[in-house]
Amino acid sequence: MRVVRALLTVAAVVLLLLAATPWVDRIDPSWLPPVQALGRLWIALALLGVVLSVLTRAWLAGGANAVAIAVALVTIVNVSNRPDCDAGEARVAVMTVNAYFGEADVEQLSTAIQRHDIDVLVVTEATEPMIASLLRTDAGKRFVHRSGQTVEGREADGTVILSRDRARRVDVPAGEAETFQQPAMSVDVDGANVLVRAVHPVPPVDTWLPDWRQGLLDLGEWQRTQRGRPLVMAGDFNASSAHAAFRDAKRGMYDTAGWWPSATWPMDRSHPPFADIDHVLVRGLSVRAAGTEDIEGTDHRAVWADLRVCRR
C-alpha cells in the first residue's frame, strides 16, 4: 500500500505541473501550447486521482490533485470583464464558424443563422463557392454587405464578414506576424457603429509558433487602440485562456461563452472536443444569450452571441 501511495503522489505532482503550464508564457518547447490547452483532461484525471487517493488514504496525493483541479479551473472558468452596462435596444447577433476549407454544411449553417436571427456572420477558412452557396439560401439572402472577395480553392486563408446591416470595410494594420485574413467592418446597428474584427491567427504548430504568439499579441495591441466604441472580435483564435498570448489579446474584453466555455475543437475525432479556441469577444456590448452550434463538414463548433449595444 505504501508503494501505491507513493505512485499516486508522484502522478498527482506530475498532474499539478501539467495543470500549471498555462502560467508559463513561452512557445518552446513546441509541445507546450498543446499541453496548455488540455486543462479539461487534467481536471478529469485529477478527479480520478482524488477518488483513488481517498480509497488508499494517500492524503498528500489527494491534496496535490485538489490543487491541480483548482489551478486548471482558473484558466478555464471565465469570470473577468463581464459587461456591466445599461443595455439599449440596439441589437446585433453575431456568429462565427470555421468552415474547414469551405466544407461546412451550408444548409445546417443556414438553419443555425435563422434559429438565432444572426445579423453578422464571420466565416474563417471560407471559399468563394461556399459563400456563394450560403448567400443563395433563405437565411443567406439577409446578408447584403460583406468584407470582400475570398479564396476560390481549398485554403485556410479565406475569411469573410457578412452583415445584414449597413456596413463598411475598415482598414486594419498588417501587424508583425504572419496570419490568415483578418478583415474588419464597421456595422451600423440602429445608429451605433459597432466595429467587428474577424480573427484567424495561424495555429501553434512548429513552424508557426512565433507568428501564432505574435499574432495574438498584435490583436491585443490593436483592440486596445479601439477603446471608446463597441467592439466585437470573433473567429478561430487557435488559442484559449490557457495561453498567455490569448489572455493578452482579450484583456479588457469579455468572452461571451459565459463562465464555462464549451469546447469547440476538434469535432471530427473519436474523442470529444477539448479546446475552446473559437470565440466571440466583446466590449461595449451586453450579452443576452450565447451558445454553440454543431455544423457537419467542419471540425469546429460554431459560436454565437445575442448582443445589445450599451448606452453611453
Detailed description of the structure:
The protein has 312 residues and is of the alpha+beta class. The chain folds into two domains: 2-74; 87-310, Deoxyribonuclease I, Chain A, CATH 3.60.10. Helices cover 31% and strands 24% of the residues. It has helices at residues 2-19, 32-36, 39-56, 59-74, 106-115, 128-135, 209-224, 244-249; strands at residues 87-98, 120-124, 145-146, 159-163, 167-170, 184-189, 192-199, 231-236, 254-255, 278-283, 285-293, 302-310. The strands form two sheets. The protein has a six-stranded mixed β-sheet, with no helix packed on it. Strands 5-6-7-8-10-9 form a six-stranded mixed β-sheet, with no helix packed on it. The protein is elongated, with a radius of gyration of 21 Å. The mean pLDDT is 94. InterPro entries: Endo/exonu/phosph_ase_sf, Endo/exonuclease/phosphatase. It comes from Aeromicrobium flavum. The chain crosses the membrane at residues 42-60.
Mean pLDDT: 94
Shape: elongated
> Radius of gyration, rounded?
21 Å
Number of strands: 12
GO molecular function: catalytic activity
InterPro entries: Endo/exonu/phosph_ase_sf, Endo/exonuclease/phosphatase
Transmembrane segments: 42-60
Keywords: Membrane, Transmembrane, Transmembrane helix
Quickly list its features.
312 residues, alpha+beta, Deoxyribonuclease I, Chain A, 2 domains, six-stranded mixed sheet, 8 helices, catalytic activity
